[in-house]
């Protein structure tokens, strides 16, 4: 008999950026020393584990030791905390695809009222509080204002591409290029200047397909591929989509607009203003179950 009495687990994705989700509603299931980097790597292993780009622990902010430090006065307003790990076990400050899936799981697991989710709730992250909600077409999250980090370069297969550093809570280097993004070899992480990005960086290669002025402002359409810090190439990156949208608008001298972002795993929408960056897109739970004792050991 298989002993499947281990902790509850869900697998899901947002535009095919996939996550193992671990509910921890009272903070006792997955304390930091249990969910260590080695276990995260095993969970994310596509042969020996469930396979994913990252892990999301669904835990109340009150049970996360470093939540008070990152959330400050907002701690009391953030009942829930998105404890995100990359596939290599490292923590990331923010995850745009993950936080939409996180809200979906909160509601699906009965941890949050659907009405509240529709109105929007603040969720704690290591990048600060983020408002996230259910929209007409999927889920949305306001990342706040994009923060420029200066100019940089990425080296891919021996070629150098200039880029713009952008923080969405986590760091990005967005390289707008005329070289078709499909043609890049991202099996190895692009080279970057470690002095500019001491904590590492997510690198986006972006083609601007169109940009136009209309009655409701600037609209643009971009296509991106991404090599994520702590993961490698993924089929989508929500914060990367926001950074790319901001950089595409900025390159055209605009600080606001609506950008459609095509990624290998689907399509995202980003609304940029000088003070907000709202990402919208889908979130899907693929399966629910438990971890087995034989795998946990
Ligand atoms: N895929 C995520 C970003 C996950 C974190 C990133 N790898 C980092 O280390 O900053 C997204 O959808 O934003």
Describe this structure in words.
The chain has helices at residues 37-44, 67-71, 96-108, 114-119, 238-251, 293-296; strands at residues 8-14, 17-23, 54-60, 80-86, 121-125, 128-135, 138-142, 147-156, 159-167, 171-176, 202-214, 217-228, 232-234, 257-263, 266-272, 277-281, 284-290. The chain is an alpha+beta fold and 297 residues long. The protein has a 17-stranded mixed sheet that branches. The protein is globular, with a radius of gyration of 19 Å. The model has no long low-confidence stretch (mean pLDDT 97). The site of ligand LBFN2T5F has 17 residues, from α3 and α5.
Features:
single chain, 297 residues, alpha+beta, Diaminopimelate Epimerase, Chain A, domain 1, 17-stranded mixed beta sheet, 6 helices, 42% strand, globular, binds ligand LBFN2T5F
CATH fold label of the largest domain: Diaminopimelate Epimerase, Chain A, domain 1
Question: What's the helix-strand series?
Answer: EEHEHEHHEEEEEEEEEHEEEEH
What is the CATH homology-level superfamily of the largest domain?
Diaminopimelate Epimerase, Chain A, domain 1
Q: Identify the bound ligands.
A: ligand LBFN2T5F
Q: Largest sheet, described in full? A: 17 strands, mixed
So, CATH architecture of the largest domain? Roll
Number of helices: 6
Oligomer: single chain
Count of separate structural domains: 2
Structural class: alpha+beta
Radius of gyration: 19 Å
State the total count of DSSP E strands: 17
Terminal Cα span = 15 Å
Task: Quote the average pLDDT.
Answer: 97
Q: Assess the beta-strand content as a share of residues.
A: 35-45%
Low-confidence runs? none
Instruction: State the helical fraction.
Output: 10-25%
- How would the global form be characterised? globular
Report the CATH C-level class of the largest domain.
Alpha Beta
């Amino acid at each position: 008999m298989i002993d499947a009495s281990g902790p509850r687990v869900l697998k899901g994705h947002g535009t095919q950026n996939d996550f193992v989700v671990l509910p921890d509603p009272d903070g006792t299931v997955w304390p930091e020393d249990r969910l260590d980097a080695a276990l995260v790597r095993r969970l994310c292993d596509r042969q020996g584990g469930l396979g994913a780009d990252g892990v999301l622990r669904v835990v109340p902010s009150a049970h996360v030791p470093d939540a008070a430090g990152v959330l400050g006065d907002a701690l009391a307003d953030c009942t829930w905390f998105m404890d995100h790990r990359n596939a290599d076990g490292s923590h990331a400050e923010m995850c745009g695809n993950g936080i939409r899936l996180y809200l979906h799981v909160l509601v699906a697991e009965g941890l949050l009222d659907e009405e509240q989710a529709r109105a929007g709730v603040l969720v704690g992250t290591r990048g600060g509080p983020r408002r996230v909600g259910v929209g007409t077409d999927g889920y949305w999250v306001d990342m706040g204002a994009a923060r420029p980090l200066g100019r940089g370069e990425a080296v891919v297969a021996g070629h150098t591409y200039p880029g713009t550093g952008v923080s969405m809570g986590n760091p990005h280097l967005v390289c707008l290029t005329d070289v078709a993004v499909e043609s890049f070899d991202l099996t190895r992480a692009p080279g970057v200047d470690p002095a500019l990005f001491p904590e590492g960086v997510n690198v986006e290669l972006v083609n601007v397909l169109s940009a136009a002025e209309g009655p409701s402002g600037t609209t643009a359409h971009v296509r991106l591929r991404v090599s994520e810090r702590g993961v490698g190439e993924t089929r989508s990156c929500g914060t990367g989509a926001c950074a790319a949208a901001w950089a595409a608008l900025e390159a055209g001298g605009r600080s606001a607009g609506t950008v459609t972002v095509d990624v290998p795993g689907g399509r995202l929408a980003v609304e940029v203003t000088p003070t907000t960056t709202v990402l919208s897109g889908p979130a899907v739970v693929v399966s629910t179950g438990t971890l087995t004792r034989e795998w946990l050991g």
